Fold this protein.
Amino acid sequence: MKFISLNTAAELICFLAALIFLYRDKSAAWRLFILYMLIVVSTETTAILTRRIIPNQHLYNAFLLAECGFVSYFLYNMFRPFGYTKKWLFAWWGIFAVVYLGELYYFRGGEYPHFVAFTVNIMSVAFVLGCLWFYYVKLVDEQYEPLMTSAQFWWVSGALFFYFGSTACNVFFDYLAEYDHASYYSSTRYVIYNILNIILYSLWTYSIVCRYRQRKLSRS
Amino acid sequence: MQVSPKEIISLIALTSFVFLIAPIFLIRYVLLYNRKKKKHEEEKKAMVKTLETELLRTQMEVQEQTLKTIAYDLHDNIGQLLSLTTITLSSIDLDDRSKAAEKIALIEDLTARSTKEVKALSRMLHSEELLSRGLFSAIEFELEWMKRSDRFRINFVKPTFESFNNDSGKETIMFRLFQEIINNIIQHSKATEIFVNLEQIDGTLKMDIRDNGVGFDVAETLQRKNGMGLHNIKKRAAIINGTAAIESRRGTGSSVSITVPY
């Protein structure tokens, strides 16, 4: 059983970086990042361990709740200084809950167990819009900020790469599941998600380091 | 024509690749724009610094000009009055009572004039304070001072309101521009009449200064080394987002119009 791949290594490095650099962070959203990365690593490990025994759709369906909850909350925290209130976050969580439960229990009730691919599509689109909106807000902001070392900017960039890049795979998720017959480790899906995950966690690790440096600089 | 699953999967892979490339360009654009924002901010800071430096220099020049005027006045006016007083005093013959009384009356008059001159000088020393009452009042005071010499006939037209909403930096630079132009007229124009006109046109203040002197070739003067004064006028007007139009021809006098937004 192969535990360490490029993908899992990237996740593990990101988790360790979060643990080392963020545990003293003042922001709840950044500290929550440690917990989220722990969930990511645990989910991935559990999936590797159990995939030959039981289907892991349930596991990833459950993980989706953590993913949506964390990424949405994190994005909301970035928009908060620009005057966006909590109602946006709750409205989005409401929409997500309706789509998620709808797909899980009604629309695909016949093919149980199944992965909530449509919900993932909706979530990805929402996050891409969130990331693009963040860029827009930064562009119109009169205050100059050095983006090359901005933790928020690289966090959003990582998310944008992942959610935008996975659009095609998400849209054709069912098709790929049916026709992408090569062994999973050489399948198109696997290669694409591997690349996306490596980009995502590399940029997030960099953003964690930037955040740590920002905190150190602001203290000195 | 039926498309095979392999082809569709290749298409999905290609689309994913394109979707992966797009954010790279997007991030690059955002970073580029941000760099321009930084450059713009630096330019803005440099402009503010230039304005501050120029303002400081202008304030010093206004003070210097005031001191020069005072020095001339002490030498040419008060100095003369006091010398005359000394001579008159030393020529008093106490035995000749009627002449002595006449001379004492003259000394009294000379002393009164000296006191008046000293008071005027004292007001002049507070030129910055004068500027705090407004640009128009400062210009008016300066022109009143010039009128005393009887060398020029002065026509001054000003609006009824005070200008610039407490932008003292702008007022100081405008006042210094006025002083520089007037100095040029005094030194080079051989004019007998000066026209100063201040007016408000569509959110701008226009200061028009004309004279009936000998005039000069503007283009030629701007090219020469001694054209620095004219360049300075243009540069200073530009610093407060204004413009300076200099018009003159030999034998027909000259005119300088400063237009600044306020």
